[in-house]
Amino acid sequence: MSSSTLVRGGLVVTASDETHADVLVEDGRVAALAAAGTPAAAALTADRVIDATGKYVVPGGVDAHTHMEMPFGGTRASDTFETGTRAAAWGGTTTIVDFAIQTPGRGLREGLDAWHAKAEGVCAVDYAFHMIVSDVREDTLAEMDLLVAEGVTSFKQFMAYPGVFYSDDGRILRAMQRAAGNGGLIMMHAENGIAIDVLAEQALARGDTDPRHHGEVRKALLEAEATHRAIRLAEVAGAPLYVVHVSAREALAELVRARDRGLPVFGETCPQYLFLTADRLAEPGFEGAKYVCSTPLRPQEHQDALWRGLRTDDLQVVSTDHCPFCFAGQKERGRDDFSRIPNGMPGVENRMDLLHQAVVEGRITRRRWIEIACAAPARMFGLYPRKGTLAPGSDADLVVYDPRAEHVVSARTHHMNVDYSPYEGRRLTGRAETVLSRGEPVVTAGRWTGRPGHGVYLPRSTCQYLA
């Protein structure tokens, strides 16, 4: 059955415009926008009317870096695709791009099929996949072509985690050369994992086992060195490059130099690097384990550099790297050895609100908020304008956002399937009030009205910044 919704009276904020307008939704898509108070707006009618007076009307967030159910260190991320996408919706995110994993010795297709099986029929919002390439062989390279053709257009490689996901420079170069030919985008976890393992081994031999040593061995210079090397390899291959979870100012400087030379190099950072610092890793009583992720949290001066990078567009995207592990029973695996603490933190529910807090504090503008959280990730990964904006023909992924609502972040009230919040006790201003996913209300005036299985899989085009 056809249905229509009219969102009246709000300030529509996209990456390019802010205007008081009414938004008409028909059959899951944006049908029209009409400036408030005009005859065109007065003529709009619908089955259901949502009053957005005094609120923002913004596109649903696009989180381009999540890890639902990801296996890591003998355990797996605690959010399933059902719980993780529901939490995303509560926070105003209506699209995620997760990572399917190639098992060494196996094909890309087998890994992708396994992730389709995890997600199919349970997601509350729409989803897509990147592909982690952990074993570059001739048949792997051929499969990359096939995946691009069917809409999996980005491939992640790791310069970290030897023995798990690590690829050496030769394998990285071969994958980059293939991506240069098929239009794919290589995403890089840029840390010198070989050197980090040496430093970790030495730290443990000295008896330095606490969580703070996780950050100390994963040095900013080793992130910068790997970022430099990845850029040079991409340049040799003639391929674009997207560096994930940039945390160090020295790594950002490498991106800035490359972009100043006109290279197709892009960078992502995450809320944890913008709002938390390395001090958290030293919290007493093993509490620092809650903040173990890779790349690690850095001192304050790195955070300041990342905010500058966002303002100057040397960093284009803020994603979460949502990979939650419970403190009890999962993070605790590393009580006597920081290298055994599962790497990852929750955040898919908090990203939009944290970035709005940056608007409140004057760090970024409203339009930049929508750019880095919605439009840029959609363009980067071939989903725009279906996702990431509000325009006629776009999916009606729409958030009525109350910019004055105050709330306190807490594990007691969040919807992620994890027993702590890295932002526990932080007071934020701004919150999603009503969330539509393809026109269907999944959060209605602060109540859950969504359902598992509403979300659909999204084949993607290639990176739209390269067209």
Structure commentary:
This protein has 467 residues and is an alpha/beta fold. It has helices spanning 39-42, 81-90, 108-119, 138-149, 169-182, 193-205, 212-217, 220-237, 249-260, 271-275, 300-311, 351-360, 366-380, and strands at 4-13, 18-26, 29-35, 48-51, 56-59, 61-66, 71-72, 75-76, 93-101, 126-132, 154-158, 185-189, 241-243, 265-269, 317-318, 398-408, 427-437, 440-444, 447-448. Strands 1, 2, 3, 4, 5, 16, 17, 18 and 19 form a 9-stranded mixed beta sheet that branches. Strands 6-9-10-11-12-13-14-15 form an 8-stranded parallel beta sheet. A two-stranded antiparallel sheet has the order 7-8. The radius of gyration is 21 Å and the shape is globular. The protein starts with a strand and ends in a 19-residue tail after the last strand.
